Records
---
Amino acid sequence: MKTRQTSFVVAILSVVATAVKITDIQGVAFQSPFAGEWVHNVTGVVTAKDRYGFWVEGEPLEDTRVSNGLKVYSATLGRHVQTGDLVSLSGRVAEYRQAARPNDLYLTELELPSNLEVLSEGNTVIPLVLSKTGDRIPPATLLSAHDVGPDGWLSVPNNVTLLERANATLRPDRYGLDFWESLEGRLVTIPTPTAANFPDMFGSVWVYGDWDIPGKNERGGLTITPVDKMPDSHPGTVLIGRPLDGTRLPKSVVGMKLSDITGVVTYQFGYYYILPLTAPTVLHTPVQAPLPASITSTDHPCEIIIGDYNVENMSPRSNHIPFIADHIANYLHSPDIMFLQEIQDDSGSRDNGVTSANQTLTVLVKTIAQAQAGEDNEVIAPYSYSFVDIDPEDNMDGGKAGGNIRVAYLWRPEKVSLLPGVRGTATQATEVVEDANGQLTLSLNPGRIDPTSDAWEETRKPLAAAWQTTNGDRFFTVNVHLSSKRFSSSQHGDARPPVNGRAVQRTHQVKVTATFVDSILAKDSSASIILAGDMNDFVQTRTVFHPLHSLLHDINDVADIDPAERYTYVYEQHAQEIDHIFVSDAVAKRGAEVEHVHVNTWALSASARASDHDPTGAKIWVCKRLEDVAGRRLVIQADI
Ligand SMILES: *[C@@H]1O[C@H](CO)[C@@H](O)[C@H](O)[C@H]1NC(C)=O
Ligand SMILES: *[C@@H]1O[C@H](CO)[C@@H](O)[C@H](O)[C@H]1NC(C)=O
Ligand SMILES: *[C@@H]1O[C@H](CO)[C@@H](O)[C@H](O)[C@H]1NC(C)=O
Ligand SMILES: *[C@@H]1O[C@H](CO)[C@@H](O)[C@H](O)[C@H]1NC(C)=O
């Protein structure tokens, strides 16, 4: 057999030279026992190449903690090898991460390689098959032994341990990061994987294979659900990066089935990746179109349909208004009250001092009226929806500069009305008070909750409102949009548990909101209260929601929604619920229906979405009287 040989002179030569196996280099821990050392006569078969070098795979060990794959970092040397070459080479073992990315995990590499010798050609490496019927499957629920705390990987405080500093011995049977680390550099196949999301901004796709995964929803996405009371992190899900042969990944959607993916396991940009040798093809795209909610409004004054929708930076000129209007009119069937978030001012993100959103809301309610009437029918004011909001102080509530996003209510005046009162201003706090008849109302209606509290610095303030039915029964609502998860760190990163951006601020915000809710319940423990909106966190982050725990009920629990189907958003590998509806005891005891309407998470492309959030619709009973409704007797639920 023909042998090619290439020699490279290395400036510094080590003193001692011994043959070292790839498995010796990888070792049983996150970091190599040879880190920083020169090694010689490292042999392995070339499995893949990229423009920075190539991957080699040596003899495997029985010990599943130890990888037999390795990245060789050298573009020059890469040009002298072919896939299938059995090579021998020297080099220095490095634990590498970009200086600009200090929260990344280290990738074990052989750098400054030399003494390359091709011992034979045309060798094959059989990929390790990741599937239930194959060689290995990832662990089911946990990412890292260091995600300690009451809520596992979602625990607060975050960043208690640095994984690389701890350099633990790998436990690939138990922890996802350990599992992927134990395969670092190896050639693996995931047979017919499923995509868990749309592509990310680099075109990479999160996938999972054929193994049991808690929280798998009907669409094929992976919902964050509790397992043994701990939130599941979907540790077996992995990013598929740019194919090594220059082909392009298909544009994924949630639940899309792909053909087998074979590639090398690596770590880059904060995550474990498989770099496929070539792009997979699409085997199947979910065909079921999003279904409209089955909940519809009734004539009964006590039975109220609410909708909740983050309409993503809506201004009067937004192209997505007709889609949002269609969702409200035809998928939620025009709820009696809409809780909206991310309504921008009338000048959108132009930073010009305008704070009123009167035009934004007017255009929206007019477009909803058109959607209700059908495309060609001209609609004239008054539209079926009235609206109310409170203008923020200019650029004081976070979000896109100049946009002045705020929460707002739409309501159907023939069904409900705001109790008479004065609308508050940006800085005035509303309070629960008794009116002249001794009935509860709000001092400002609607009004903001404690808007000058530190909790709301640089963020949207909640809008509380007191309502009455056409029979005069009263209820309260709070519409919130808590601080975003900006500044969160990677779930595959060094900081354990990962940093949950602004969790401390959200906890404070929930606390202030809970204090307000409690002030109503203190005056009337059987008050009907609905708290809804974009809360930017999962109920599984129990620390954040703790202040509400004894006051309100998650409407999903009241309606007994399958935990896997509780999602309104998809981010990275998770389908997740960050939009919530909570109700008071009195409302919960009368039962409720709720539906998350997946008009956006089920879109056939990321760009076809009208918003990044799905809307939710719910039916509740707001009167203290119980009675027969359309043949259905409302029964007090004793077990709530
Ligand atoms: C490495 O291999 C070369 C032949 O390619 C041999 O001459 C040398 O002795 C080996 N070194 C070690 C440390 O095994
Ligand atoms: C990491 O752990 C391995 C195995 O215990 C050890 O050989 C290596 O020196 C450790 N590296 C560091 C930087 O602690
Ligand atoms: C985690 O904490 C360390 C200090 O222990 C700090 O250097 C690092 O920047 C933090 N990581 C993140 C992602 O905030
Ligand atoms: C919106 O603006 C119009 C015209 O300026 C005004 O008549 C109306 O009262 C405003 N509506 C609300 C809800 O502020």
Note: Residues 126-288 form one domain.
---
Amino acid sequence: MDIAKIQQELNAALKPYKDEVAGFRSLPKEGLSRSDIVTLIAELSQREAPRWQSGKVSGAVYHGDPNHIEFQNTVYSLQSQANPLHMDIWPSITKFEAEIVSMTAHMLGAGQTEDEIVGTVTSGGTESILLAMKTYRDWAKATKNITEAEIVAPSTAHVAFEKAAQYFGMRLIRVPVGIDFRADVKAMKAALTPNTVVMVGSAPPFPHGIIDPIEELSEIARQHGIGFHTDACLGGFILPWAEKLGYPVPKFDFRLPGVTSMSCDTHKYGYAAKGTSVVLYRGRELRHYQYYVCTDWCGGIYLSPTMTGSRPGGLSAAAWAALVSMGESGYLEAARRILKSAETIKKGIATIPELRILGDPLFVIAFTSDNLDIYAISDVMSKAGWNLNGLQNPPAVHLAVTIRHTQEGVAERFLADLQQAVETVKSHPEMQGSMTPVYGMTTNVVLRGAVDQFLRGLLDTVFEP
Ligand SMILES: *Cc1c(COP(=O)(O)O)cnc(C)c1O
């Protein structure tokens, strides 16, 4: 396939509404009627909703019950104008954010350690991770005069750590994981240098969902006097409840003395609307390195806890509302249902001889095939409406099980379609191709040669009107 043809196909996939609904290269001369606009947006939303509502998508929408969504929307609409940058105008948002941080911290071991656990609300897991890495860089510069800061992370750690290293001029040392897909403790230790400022582990990592040996890793970090960040963006709001339900959950939070920071996404299994996450630190001193303050700008003295300036207070209100409406019992029940559906799905995959589950996961189930092209299987699943996350090195796909998959019959339909997809690929060996998965896209793309440039071009396409 040539590049032009791929571009054409991608254009069609990314821009299905082109030529179909009104589009604007520049502002309309006269504003459109509000009712027409609402009708148009409602139509597009209704076209997109059935797929994720029915539980065909991996991750993405973690709760999704209509009454929960309506509740979130109501709360957001009550505070859609709020901006916590103006602390005196919207003290309610300050209250909500302080309590989001405190509730999240107490779920993750605050109160079970001598130290105070503090943090801030951010816009998402990536920002939580970016901020934590910047914090360690600045802490190490100030307290140890380290100017070439290094991060040591397992190869499975989220790409946001890579992004942090690039943005903040740090060096990321990626250490291959063991055959069980967990961080290799010995290799992680061996990767430390005098410039290492933080070691990273995930509970669990996005790709294969296998929790790293945080207890051993964080102890090594503690002995070396460096930071340890547990990335619990994905697991933070589900693992504490899985543990209470008796599932085997290794320790990963602030109960471990070496864990000095954590990221935990309210907008995933916290069931809040998209756009919030929490970054936590052991002690105020570390959090001070995250803050931005400027005292001599002519616009006035400026202080801001995170990367953005103005922030959507309505999203913090909605996140607070999600937390207090779920409560301990709500999160426990959600975890119980999700883990039960995940067990059904794991057992089902294990009965398909052509497939192999990677490691021993809890609720993010990665699998591959030793004799068939797993990406071809994933493509057949896509044609049946399913959206699996494509993984690479090694080739695999995963399903992140959410409340959507706990609906009646979803797990069974997934397994039936998966079995069918395996049969299809088996009887069509020509379907095996050199396809590459792109994070957040359903279809695998044929990528050869200048992949980096191609992906930049892909983002250009996204911003074409
Ligand atoms: C989702 C995720 C992130 C990044 O979060 P965003 O909200 O997409 O920015 C980081 N780490 C893990 C383990 C995740 O699952």
Note: The two ends are 26 Å apart (CA to CA).
